[in-house]
Amino acid sequence: MSNPFHERPTRIEIDLDAFAHNHAAIRSRVGVPVMGIVKANGYGHGLVQMAQALERQGVEQIGVAFVEEGIALRKAGIRRPILVLGGIFGPQVSQYLDHDLEITVSSLDKLRQVEAAAEARGKRAVVHLKIDTGMERIGVHSYSSAAFIQAAAASTWCFIKGVYSHLACADDPASPMTLQQLERFHDACAQFERIGAPMPIRHLANSGGVLHFPETWLDMVRPGIILYGVLPDPASRPTIELKPVLSLKSQVVYFKVIPEGATVSYGATWRADHQTRIVTVPIGYGDGWPRALSSTGRVLIRGEQYPIVGRVCMDQFMVDIGAGSAWNEDEVVLIGRQGNELLTAEQVAARIGTIPYELLVGLNERIPRHYAGGRT
Ligand SMILES: *Cc1c(COP(=O)(O)O)cnc(C)c1O
């Protein structure tokens, strides 16, 4: 391993058996092909490693956000079809073609840019048309998509493999928005029938759609966060049995006793109201462990939950273990299981008012990833 941090006692452990379990559970529930989403470093789990795992498990399609991520996967030897979900920049189209990456075409202008680049290169582009049904991000509004679909269907240099849209509120099973979006999507897709063009693969469901709205599964689903065993939102229902894939662990690097009245860390924002025991853990916001967890987060040591006290520093933070015991090199679990105690990514994110997505993708390359399992 060329990673200079590889031996660092702070580490992320990735359970590839749990990942395979989640993938299989999703597949058996939906019964349609799966596009496994591995953008943003595989939601913090490792871009290449998670794509390789999906490929071994027979995933039909892989999804990333940016062309650079797709190129990285091709360079690592991934052979499965890869769709880049983000919007394209005209000058980058030749890179998609060179690396056999499928293109999201999200406007008539961009369709023309792809056609021009494909013709110049003498190679047909494989595209998925993006319809906007209410997200107001990228994509042609469903209510004005007829001409767009017609132009794409008439294109010689674009093969329309897919047509898709993105759900804004599917994390919440009670939101009426999802079925409205589905209806708008069906209206747009009807244009293919109207003009006698073959229906491409229709895909709409993100993790929320997979969990809560079977109507949105259509011809393929695009789960991201649930592949990693994490629910998208506190309102989400675990309709599929998921296993967390990622654990974040460190070790106690220092132990001290502080007197009543002593303050801990920068800004002296936390004060001991009695003599207590403080341990230091060598990971901080420089690793993507959020500073917002200052005097707010909790960790597991010797099977007990203890509070983070004072501000989280760039490379370290402190924990009040009260009358508890801890020794240098004791394991500290920040996300994951220790004994009978469990700290989930959902719980950590909720403490600081964010979503598990942001917490996980924020864990950066300074933390080495260790992979186990997945050899079945
Ligand atoms: C990120 C993304 C997904 C996956 O979302 P999850 O909520 O993680 O399942 C699906 N489709 C598109 C277009 C995305 O950008």
UniProtKB/TrEMBL annotation:
Record EC number: 5.1.1.1
Family annotation (SMART domains): Ala_racemase_C
Swiss-Prot/TrEMBL catalytic activity: L-alanine = D-alanine
Signal peptide positions on this chain: none
Pathway(s) per entry: Amino-acid biosynthesis; D-alanine biosynthesis; D-alanine from L-alanine: step 1/1
Highest taxon above the source species: Bacteria
One Gene Ontology cellular component annotation held by this UniProt entry: cytosol
Listed NCBIfam families: alr
Function text: Catalyzes the interconversion of L-alanine and D-alanine. May also act on other amino acids.
PANTHER family: ALANINE RACEMASE, ALANINE RACEMASE, CATABOLIC-RELATED
Family named by the database record: Belongs to the alanine racemase family.
Designated name of the protein: Alanine racemase
Species in which this protein is naturally found: Solilutibacter tolerans
